Amino acid sequence: MKLTAITKQYNLGVRFGALRILVGQVMFYVSMANFVMISVVAYDTTLRAVIQAHFPWFNFPLFIGIMAFLVLVAMVLEYKFVVPSTTSYGNVMWYRHQNPAKADLELILKKLEELEAKIK
Fold first, then answer.
1. Sign of torsion, CA 8 13 17 19?
2. pLDDT at 2 > cutoff 80
3. Long-range contacts of 70-77 (CB under 8 A, 24+ apart)
4. Which long-range contacts (CB under 8 A, 24 or more apart) does 51-56 make?
5. What is the pTM of this model?
6. CB burial class (10 A; 0-12, 13-18, 19+) of residue 43?
7. Structure confidence by residue, pLDDT tens digits, 43-68
8. What whole-number distance in Å separates Cα of residue 104 and Cα of residue 110?
9. Cα 74 versus chain centre, distance
10. Are 91 and 84 in contact (CB under 8 A)?
C-alpha cells in the first residue's frame, strides 16, 4: 500500500467543517466548567486530607489560586509554542483546499504577467 493512499485527504464539505469548528469552540466553555467541577471534587474528596496532613495551613482558596496559576502557565506555553505551529498548518491547509483567495491571487498574477509582457 502506498503512503499517498493513506495520507489522501477528503473534503466533507463546508457544513461539516463549520459544525466541527463550532463544536470545538463551544467545548472551550464546557471544558472550563468541567475543569472547575473536577478540581473542586478532587480537592474535597481526596486532596484536602492528604495535603492538610502535611501542610495544615493549606486551604481551598490557595488551592484555587494554584490551579489558576497552572492554567495561566499552560496558556503561556500554548501561546508561545502551539499557536504558531497550528497557524502555520492552518495556512497550508487554507491555501490547498478550495480557497477563494488563492483563485483571486492566481488571477492577479496572470494579469500582472500580462501587464509585464506589454511593458517589455
1. negative
2. no
3. 71/35
4. none
5. 0.64
6. middle
7. 999 999 999 899 999 999 999 999 99
8. 10
9. 13
10. no
Q: Are 98 and 11 in contact (CB under 8 A)?
A: yes
In the block, cell 466533507 appears at 12
Average pLDDT (69-82) is 93
The C-alpha torsion from 57 through 58 and 64 to 66, rounded to 10°, is 110
CA atoms of 26 and 28, how far apart (whole Å) = 5
Q: Where are the domains of the chain?
A: 1-56, 59-120
Q: How far apart are CA 100 and CA 1, in angstroms?
A: 34
Given this model, what pLDDT does residue 1 score?
66
Query: Residue 75 has which C-alpha cell?
Result: 496558556
Contacts of 70 (CB under 8 A, 6+ apart): none
Query: What mean pLDDT is predicted for residues 15-21?
Result: 90
